[in-house]
Amino acid sequence: MERYKLDDFEQRCIQDELPYCQAACPLKVDAKAFCAAMAQKRFDEARKILSKTMPLPDIIGRICDHPCQDACILSQKGGAILIGKLERACLEQTKDTGLPLRLPPKGLSVTIYGGGLSSLTCALELAKKGYQVCMVFNDEIPGGRLLTLAQEVLPQEVLVTAWQNLQRLGVTRSSGKDSIRDCLKEGNVAYVGIDDPEWTHLVDVKDIDPFTYKTSTEGLFAGGYLRSNKPSPSWESADGKRAANSIDRYFQGASLTSGREKEFSLDTKLYTSIEGVPTLSPKDDPIEEAKRCIQCECRCCVRECVFLEKYKGYPKIYVRQIYNNFAIVRGSHSANKMINSCSLCGLCEVLCPNDFSMAELCRFAREEMVERNIMPPSVHEFALLDMEHANSPRSSGFRSGAKTTEAIFFPGCQLSGAMPDQTERVANFLGKMFDGKMGIMLGCCGAPAWWAGRQDKLNEVIKNIEKTVESAGNPTLILACSSCNEVFKNFMPNLSRVSLWQVLLEKGLPETRPATETLALHDPCTTRHEPEWRQSVRKILQILGQPYEELVFGGEATRCCGYGGLQSMADSDLAREGVSRRLQESKNDFLTYCAMCRESLSGSEKTVLHLLDILFPPPAEKKRAGFSKRQQNRELLRVKLLGPCDLAPNPWDDLLISIPDAVREKLEDRHILDSDIRQTLWEASSTGRYLISPDGTRLASSRIGNVAFWVEYREDYHSFTIVNAWSHRMIMELMS
Amino acid sequence: MSKESDLGFHEQTVWRCSCGGELTPHKVAALYLGNRFEIELPACSRCGFILVPESLAVGKMLEVEKILEDK
Question: Which of A206, A221, A223, A224 is nearest to A251 (CA)?
Fold first, then answer.
């Protein structure tokens, strides 16, 4: 994975951006974590959080002008969190944790003029870094303007303690007889804190660089100037702290600006939704007030996606994990399952304020895994074989219109497999509507190959489709499946296409009766960016008089059924969880217009109809068809619509097998097809090799492709009842 | 690459082979993606038919296959 690509993806995810309060704070105090600690009455922890970025918390915490509060988004919901008040409450409940650590002396000295907050902060920060700091101020103790504050606002002893602490860190006091000019002459460095009124006259504010605090005089730094014509303790402190950082860099001969963007910036790209946040006024009790903090974060996508939620992080972290997955040389590619579990549905991109697309990332990662030959071979094989089956001569083919071919109906492999009767009825209906000028093409569009990262297989399918359409004179394709539409749109943009729904609206609907009850409308995820598809379906429902319910997560924000991106192949439990949550979004039965959505969402007590169930009744069976049945249906439909294919039948095709429901379910879960079972039984019968149990049950095995199948069965009068079946991929060889 | 593993299956089996042979524990090589494990499985002492029991196939063996696929 290319570095630039990684950066591009990472930058889009804003979950790591600073909360609004912290970004607005010149000292970058983590007010969010502070509120969380306060809400849990962990006062010592809260103090630690303050001390981490706030120098002299006992002073600033009491007098802070809290620019964070102006930035708090709860101002739109009853009032900003009173962070200033919480700070004060915290300091009153806790004790100073003692002197900060001091680095070994550097043998370099700095003179600091003024006793204001910026000077005190600068002195503290430089002393911690190991500089010999000498302060010059007029009063008995430093403090400048702070000495004039009321005792109840800032008790004098706090300033006394602060000065004592500074002295214990080696800070000294000078009588200040030497002028600044003299001081700098000796190659010294000085800082002037102009927040101390006694020293304001020494430096012109316009001469101070607002980022580095450098002045035009070599070695002279200054800060502590007014903000909006008012003294600002948070800024005075930040000036002192940032100037100390600049002075440290100055001594080291390093750039005063590089890598300090985060320190200087007051902006954040974070987005936090306040939808649904209750409006509450500020509370008197600090704990209750802290509890009002909503702990700003984005997670817009994670909250609404079972997949993003499962891996316990957020896209930025996933980008890193995927990058590391490629960087690994020895050991396990631990992100493989994650990469393959995304349904590629694109909901995250719609929800993300910055358009982060996990689909784009995972699709890209899958293609790279295939290219590097590190894609786990088993994960998509079954789906790709199913695609191969759908495009084999037994299931696919083309028939031109009886007269000419003005349009080609392309139902797609899943509709043909899951709802063959409806597919046939639609084909006949359209045939009449087009007056014998409609062709039919059966087969798969290649979507599974695209989802599996198999560009090679996708290209093969595309080439065949393009060749066929071209041979028919490039007529318009009538698509019934929005996943096919997505493939055509992306990979065969030159082919003219239209949705079946639009064609039905234009040509006229068949005579039918709506379902009586209201149905929750599930838009397939591949219609997310296809408003015309969605609108056509709604128009049809309105014409039919079919009552339907719009889901909150519908339309552009619809959810995937779990088949998209072959999610169910990589993580069937996850796909099931998604389905179960989706069905809980309405008390009504569901209606959709994608055969795979119908298949995936079926299987619970809820009825899930396809629009074609209503348009061309009677509806298909309520329960899902499943893999084997879909394959058989495709083959039968091929015969019905296009006639038999040229291939000779397999010798095992006619074996009579009977599969009880419970076993059938297991076979579906284990991806064991009836054709695998028939072939295994046929091989056992022809070779006479199988195992027998005392009760007469037999066990046969056969290796088909990369999989060894085991079938446990009873044979009665040339019919086989399947008792159990399993499979594995390992090859077994007898030794010695 | 040949490794020791606990993939084997040591329980008694009720299955008999259609050739008439008994299934007895045999040393078997399990191969996957260029890896080789030596394990013990029931196999026919006459024709060599190797049994991979369901519990092994859908349990430990599946787990090992997935680990190897992610390597």
Answer: A221
